[in-house]
Amino acid sequence: MKPSHIEHIGIAVANLRDAIAFYEKTFNLQCYKIEEVPDQKVRTAFFMIGDTKIELLEPTDPEGPIAKFIEKRGEGIHHIAFAVTNVDEALHQAEKEGVRLIDSQSRKGADNLQIGFLHPKSTSGVLIELCEASGRHGS
Ligand code: ZN
What we know:
Blueprint: E1 5-12, H1 16-27, E2 33-37, E3 42-49, E4 52-59, H2 65-73, E5 76-83, H3 87-96, E6 107-108, E7 113-118, E8 128-133
Parallel strand pairs: 1-4, 5-8
Antiparallel strand pairs: 1-5, 2-3, 3-4, 6-7, 7-8
The site of zinc ion has 6 residues, from strand 1 and strand 5.
């Protein structure tokens, strides 16, 4: 696989409304979308900085992965997302090369992306998300 760019950076926040206000006021960025992803127990908000997005993630359930992350490590960078042309192909290839995966198959993420995560044990402790624009998988 060869990612084309950093699609987004995911940042775990305790309070989405406060975090949005901070990004809008401090950086003069416009939040273009707020989306709840029940599957991952988060509410997300998106900003564009050039070709890269900032994805703010607020937990909607204390048992969800983002709530657990904030509980353990506090707010902060949660993951980095690389844009690839085909997530399933990229996951499959990484697995063949011995990379540990969180998702062996792509799934639907926020903001019309098809996504899959590599395991931080294989990536120097960074949670890396692979993503592609949705549509080709018919869901
Ligand atoms: Zn993400």
